[in-house]
Design a protein that fits this description.
The protein is of the alpha/beta class. It is 26% helix and 19% strand. It has a 16-stranded mixed beta sheet, sandwiched between helices. Strands 2-3-4-1-5 form a 5-stranded parallel beta sheet. Strands 6-8-7 form a 3-stranded antiparallel beta sheet. Helix 18 links the parallel strand 23 and strand 24. Helix 3 runs parallel beside helix 4. Keywords: ATP-binding, Leucine-rich repeat, Nucleotide-binding, Plant defense, Repeat. GO terms for molecular function: ADP binding; ATP binding. This is NB-ARC.
Length: 714
């Protein structure tokens, strides 16, 4: 409030915007701002109008005219004539503050009769909205204020004020504290719940807490009418069924937990929420669509930023609204969510459910069959217990599109799994997996996540080779994994492959060489040449570790690869730092040399991080391979004399931020330009912000204007 009042005092501030989720207190706040601005005599006139979701120009004009004591004529007068009269009145009023409450989209100020703040120096506008984008549309520039929920301490203070003295009793107070926490700082929810429970006995308090924790506050007076109805407006305003379903997915995760965006994207892909993916587009296009959804939902304050990168959060009351008000009986989406309940037996699941989420449960026996003909999404996370899935468990789930069974030990998969013909996303993360060749029957599968899981004999099931429509395969953190020969070569539609801390036993391409070097072993593992079948479609290849550069086929080219982390060396991979790279390549040549047209050289040209070592007899690195790098590391190479040599007469590095040179005893020049058409001093090699490290010295800031630099002088 103080920041808004300070902004209103500044002559150059014309339009201010307040945004926040429904029920957070935007209207209350701006009303208080108006009172204080009036007491401080900041304006000659303060006008306020409620705009609402479907704005009526005439109603807005009438609200302003009533406050001004202005007659706009009879009902026959056009909106334009009325706007002219209002504009004329405001033009003569002096300093005016116009408050537009509950704005949902851009409003034409001229059509209402509000003078343009740019032309009328004495007119300022403040608006409240649930959509941050509306502030941008109304040209608030940097004068936007996010109205957030109360802290836990502030929330409890307000709760006590609304509930009265009853919360001070020894029996009620501990329950009341937990009830207040369930309101998660949302002022409207705090006021409604506290007033509903005021002077009620301890039994009613305990019952209310149970309802809130179950995301089903059906008997708490005012929750649906006053709180959920506000959120319903924001939900209804979302444009399209796909974004609404994507939003509802967030309610399937445990309360108070951050939501990994990657999980929500993979579930959304399975449910076909991103049209590009479903109509022959790419996984990358689906990701971009999901990112667009998240931006819209954040702008509408229906989703919040998570505490960690790559995560989001949903407010507890918003989550309750999703489960209780939207995903309830009689609606298109019907959810059963029991996350963190520590169940030991399977709950009653009715035939009308479309999504079921059972998270952090200790259920060990899956029932023989569930009558769930409409079920599309089933999420189950255990606590590392062994589970027995009955043979007929999946028989009636013919519509299932997303299945996630994680953090359990599954000795044997039931034959009914193979009946899930519409299944597109399957997640079996952090599991111990037994016999699972039945997975080969899931012909429509597009997303398969096996992250952190262990397999029978450490071997990836051969049945995966039959999943010819697979587009995303996540094998990250599958330690000691072995991939039998012939699986990867069948996955010709693969677009994303994740191998961090996973398979690295790549074989030589030649079958003859294999049997010469491995006379005691008959089974072959995957070779890099198997990736040729998907080289035309792969856009993401993360965490690939190859022990020897000679294992990399010279004719392996990835025409569409944009995101990759590939290490070709004996060294252990620092996955924590390496995985953050957008396009990183580390190559240890071990004295081997490669031709310019080698597949590795193609990767060098498209990366932003390049680390080269043990380069044998190589004396120089060509500029063409490193021109667009952000980081270049060259080390442990006894014969390197020139780091860069350009035969084109050009040598500038607009992207380079970090350069590390280490253990290069013959290094004489960083850049040697042949046939240069420009004077030596005419160009800058680097931008101003550039870190340069030699050997064991600490990085220093350097701006070099020299086309050729003698290393000794540095």
């Amino acid at each position: 409030m103080e920041k808004i009042l300070e902004a209103l005092k500044k002559d150059d501030v014309k339009v201010l915007g307040l945004y926040g989720m429904g029920g957070v207190g935007k209207t209350t706040l701006i009303q208080e701002v108006a009172k204080r601005a009036e007491a401080m005599n900041l304006f000659d006139e303060i006008l306020m109008a409620v705009v609402s979701q479907d704005p009526s120009i005439r109603k807005i004009q009438d609200q302003f005219a009533s406050k001004l004591g202005l007659s706009l004529g009879d009902d026959k007068e056009s909106d334009t004539v009325r706007a002219g009269r209002l504009h004329e009145k405001l033009d003569k009023t002096g300093k005016v503050l116009v408050i537009l409450d509950d704005l949902w989209k851009h409003l034409d100020l001229q059509a209402v009769g509000i003078p343009s703040p740019d032309k009328h120096k004495c007119c300022k506008i403040v608006m409240t909205t649930r959509e941050k984008d509306v502030c941008d549309q109304m040209d608030c520039k940097n004068n936007t204020f996010s109205v957030v929920v109360l802290s836990e301490e502030e929330g409890w203070h307000l709760f006590k004020k609304m509930a009265g003295d009853c919360v001070t009793s020894a029996e009620v107070e501990p329950v009341a504290i937990e009830v207040a926490k369930e309101c998660d700082g949302l002022p409207l929810a705090i006021v409604v719940v506290a007033r509903a429970l005021k002077d009620k006995n301890p039994t009613r308090w305990k019952d209310a807490l149970r309802q809130l924790r179950a995301s089903a506050p059906t008997n708490i007076k005012g929750m649906h009418k006053d709180v959920f109805s506000r959120l319903q407006l924001s939900y209804d305003y979302l444009d399209g069924e796909e974004i609404k379903q994507f939003f509802l997915l967030s309610s399937l995760f445990p309360e108070d937990n951050v939501i990994p965006i990657e999980w929500q994207k993979r579930y959304g892909m399975g449910l076909g929420l991103f049209h590009q993916a479903g109509l022959g587009g790419t996984i990358q296009e689906a990701r971009e669509k999901a990112d667009s959804f998240i931006d819209i939902l954040k702008s509408a304050c229906l989703l919040l930023d998570g505490d960690e990168d790559g995560t989001i959060r949903v407010h507890d009351v918003v989550r309750d609204f999703c489960v209780s008000a939207i995903a309830s009986k009689g609606q298109q989406h019907v959810f059963l969510v029991k996350s963190g309940w520590e169940l030991t037996e399977w709950p009653q699941i009715d035939c009308y459910y479309t999504a079921v989420s059972l998270d952090c449960n200790n259920i060990k026996q899956f029932p023989r069959g569930l009558n769930c003909p409409k079920l599309k999404c089933l999420l189950f996370t255990g606590i590392r217990q062994e589970v027995n899935i009955a043979d007929s468990f999946f028989e009636t789930m013919k519509e299932l599109e997303v299945l996630d069974i994680s953090a359990v030990h599954i000795p044997l998969f039931p034959p009914s799994l193979g009946l899930l013909g519409k299944l597109r996303t399957l997640c079996l993360d952090v599991c111990i997996l037994g016999e699972m060749e039945i997975i080969g029957n899931l012909k429509g599968l597009e997303v398969l996540s096996l992250c952190g899981s262990r397999f029978k004999d450490n071997k990836l099931p051969v049945g995966i080779s039959q999943l010819t429509r697979l587009r995303l395969l996540d094998l990250s953190n599958c330690s000691n994994l072995l991939i039998p020969c012939g699986i990867l070569s069948n996955l010709s539609r693969l677009e994303e492959l994740y191998l961090e801390n996973s398979f690295d036993e790549w074989e030589k391409e030649s079958e003859e060489e294999f049997y010469i070097e491995n006379s005691g072993r008959r089974e072959r593992y995957a070779s890099l040449s198997e990736l040729k079948s998907s080289s035309h479609s792969l856009t993401t290849l993360k965490g690939m570790h190859v022990r020897d550069v000679r294992l990399f086929p010279k004719d392996l080219f990835f025409s569409k690869l944009t995101t990759f982390q590939i290490q070709i060396s004996d060294d252990l991979v620092d996955y924590e730092n390496y995985s953050r790279l957008k396009a990183g390549l580390k190559v240890e040549f071990k004295g081997s040399s490669i031709a310019k047209d080698h597949g590795i050289c193609s990767l060098m040209k498209r990366g932003d991080y390049l680390q080269l070592s043990q380069m044998g007899n190589m004396k120089r690195i060509l500029y063409d391979f490193v021109r667009d790098l952000k980081t270049l590391v060259v080390e442990k190479s006894d014969n390197i004399e020139e780091i860069i040599i350009s035969e084109e007469g050009e040598a500038v590095f607009p992207q380079l931020k970090f350069l590390v040179l280490s253990r290069l005893p013959k290094l004489a020049r960083f850049c040697n330009v042949r046939q240069s058409r420009k004077p030596v001093q005419s160009q800058s090699l680097f931008t101003d912000e550039f870190s340069f490290s030699i050997s064991t010295f600490k990085p220093i800031k350097r701006n070099s204007n020299c086309m050729s630099q003698n290393i000794g002088n540095l």
